[in-house]
UniProtKB/TrEMBL annotation, chain A:
InterPro entries: AAA+_ATPase, ABC_transporter-like_ATP-bd, ABC_transporter-like_CS, ABC_transpr_MalK-like, ABC_transpr_MalK/UgpC-like, Mo/tungstate-bd_C_term_dom, NA-bd_OB-fold, OB_MalK-like. The keyword Nucleotide-binding applies. Pfam families: ABC_tran, OB_MalK, TOBE. NCBIfam families: PRK11650.1 (NF008653). The keyword Transport applies. CDD domains: ABC_MalK_N. This is Maltooligosaccharide ABC transporter ATP-binding protein /carbohydrate ABC transporter ATP-binding protein (CUT1 family). PANTHER family: MALTODEXTRIN IMPORT ATP-BINDING PROTEIN MSMX (PTHR43875), OSMOPROTECTIVE COMPOUNDS UPTAKE ATP-BINDING PROTEIN GGTA (PTHR43875:SF1).
UniProtKB/TrEMBL annotation, chain B:
This is Carbohydrate ABC transporter membrane protein 1 (CUT1 family). GO terms for biological process: nickel cation transport; transmembrane transport. Residues 59-273 form the ABC transmembrane type-1 domain. SUPFAM superfamilies: MetI-like. It holds the Pfam family BPD_transp_1. The chain crosses the membrane at residues 5-28, 63-84, 96-116, 152-171, 252-272. It is a multi-pass membrane protein.
Amino acid sequence: MAQLHLKNIKKQYDSSGPVVVKDFNLDIEEGEFIVFVGPSGCGKSTTLRMMAGLEEITDGEFYINDKKMNGIAPKNRDIAMVFQNYALYPHMTVYDNIAFGLKIKKRPKQEIKQKVEEAADILGLTEYLHRKPKALSGGQRQRVALGRAIVREADVFLMDEPLSNLDAKLRVQMRAEIMKLHQRLKTTTVYVTHDQTEALTMATRIVILNNGEIMQVGAPQEVYNTPNNLFVAQFIGSPSMNIFDGIFDGERLKIGNTNIKVAEADKHILKEHGYTDKKIKFGIRPENVQEYQQLSKPEEASLFDIKVRVNELLGSEFMIYSELEGEEIVARVDARNQNKPGDTMTFAFDMDKGHFFDFDTGERITDN
Amino acid sequence: MKTIYLFWIIGFLGLILGPMLFSLYGSFTNYNVTSTMDFVSFQNYEEMFLHDSLFWTSLYNTLYFVIFSVPLTTIAAIFISVLVNQNLPGMKFFRTVFYLPAILSGVGVYLLWMQLLDPSTGLINSFLSLFGISGPNWLFDAGWAKPSLILMKLWSAGGAMLLYLSAMQGISKTLYEAAVMEGASRVQMFFKVTLPMISPIIFFDVITSTIGSFQIFQEAYIMSSDSAGSPENSLLFFNLHMWIKAFNVFDMGYAMAMSWILFIIVLILTLINFRFAKYWVHYEDD
């Protein structure tokens, strides 16, 4: 197990080119499962590859257990890596693939055999040890790649979108297996994904990246409930948070012609920060857009009507897609809902769960 | 659609199967262009194996050439492709230079090499003399004539290099990255990743160049001073001997029999190659 320390890490492929990772600072504790998440090109894989030693660090310092790793060869970093496309050797059996690193290190045969069999047992690969990768399913292949990491008994696991090549069902299954593995081995893990659901379900802490910069670091609940800025608010959560442009008049939030009462605590903070009569961005998650019938105190709520455009059944619930004052709104409602496209529904926002952001910077204003 | 089939059948029968069957039948006759084709049973084959010592010489020369030329050019082509697969400035220039010999046509190249290999005025011996080495007589020395041809073949390894280079560039970079993470050295990566990954191309190259090398003719015809395999029959390859039999002495029946023997040898070797392929050729998907 290891602590990792990334200090002012920067990556620029050529001196006149764009900076793909900007001033990246992060401390990772022993045994953590850190997930880097962000859209394509945000620098998450590049950062991971710099940690692995596959990419040079342009500027800044990277430490494993207080030992500086800049310029140290990948093999001397005691890191095992799992790749998106598995990186299995097609000409080797599952056994040889898992044993590859140990054979390279010229470990005794008996030790190799024992470790490979142990790993195969953990991953349920025992009966496939003599097969070639081409005779395995995607999930099994990724398990072989995990096996290769396990036998190394490395200090750190780096995983670069390991589940992206799998179908949806397998992805969920492998997600659970990787978490189980982490609970068992407790190896410090850095996991890269573009899938926010993976990030939310797996991470002890999530690092959200955009354009080479860290947008927020925090536990899954924390980044979901208190996003630091508009980017995090919209990136984390599916469907993403509803965002409206509005003006705070000291009492209410005006979204076009719809006036909505602001919660007392938020009112205070907005006034304190000088947002009265100023344009702001208001965000609310689909599950906090409540149907009139579900409200406990409908007389206190600011109600508004919308016309259902699309209703999407997700099994236990419906997603209602519509428009409020010209902006798209998504509401998550009970599956017993009988409304059809074209019907009018009455809603209210659960304003205790609302988020206010600065109109220009997109930074969070309240501290809900 | 039917017309296309008709053309194909005419082409296949007239240009492939017909001549093959004709030569098979001809190999059992005493056909000499002017005579009728009289059936002589296995007489040509008997003559070949029991009485024609030049047949054995030509077979020996050909096997010698195949045994040295095929592995050496294969190794050279792989070696060059590893070199030009590096991501260094000017690499395109070197790739072009190495590939150039492959697009130069036969006879011109042979004449060029005859000049290079000239014992007294050739560039190669002049170069060797700079180091105080007195070069051999190359094409005029029975011991050096075949190595000269093998040397010339090595020079054109760039053709196969192109195949290997494209195969190497098709190998997923993550395989190497995974190996780097596991601590593999460059040499280990070459033997454990690159070679197995390009093994289907090596297999293809070995098969085709073995067949090609058994058919060596032009080189010997042009470069042996009497066009008949001199010095001391050291360049009398199988096909040259067959050609001499067919078109110098017009013993067509005998030449046809020789061609069938060559066919059988190549067929057996190819089958052996295929038989052993499963031990060293790795296909990603099959």
